[in-house]
Amino acid sequence: MNNVPKNLKYSKTHEWIRQDEESLTIGITDHAQCMLGDLVYVELPEPETNWEAGQECAVVESVKAAADIYCPVPGEVVEINEALLENPQLINEDPYGKGWLFRIRPFDGEIPSLLNAEQYTKQVASEAH
Question: Which CATH entry fits the domain spanning 9-127: 2.40.50.100, 3.40.50.720, 1.20.140.10, 2.40.50.40?
């Protein structure tokens, strides 16, 4: 199994979520980047845009395929990882660190139910069958 840090939350669509002081940092999981392969392009949401949970908000493209990134929580994008625009491979190299995608400030503290590391690991294992 790929790396699944226990301190993060996960969506069923393979995004990870880290609670920061005033925002949530969002990225794609190690499993997702492994499935995609070498990333060559990233399209991120514009700062100060609002998104609903489950809405397509970003795209990552690899030599194999393109994948939509879904906003895991409703909120306003407050920052994007501009380093990815020049170097999308940061996601492959460090998906939980330098490869984060964007930060979002949730509306009214709304955070829908997300998976913990154990639940996410089980989901990925069930997808393999």
Answer: 2.40.50.100
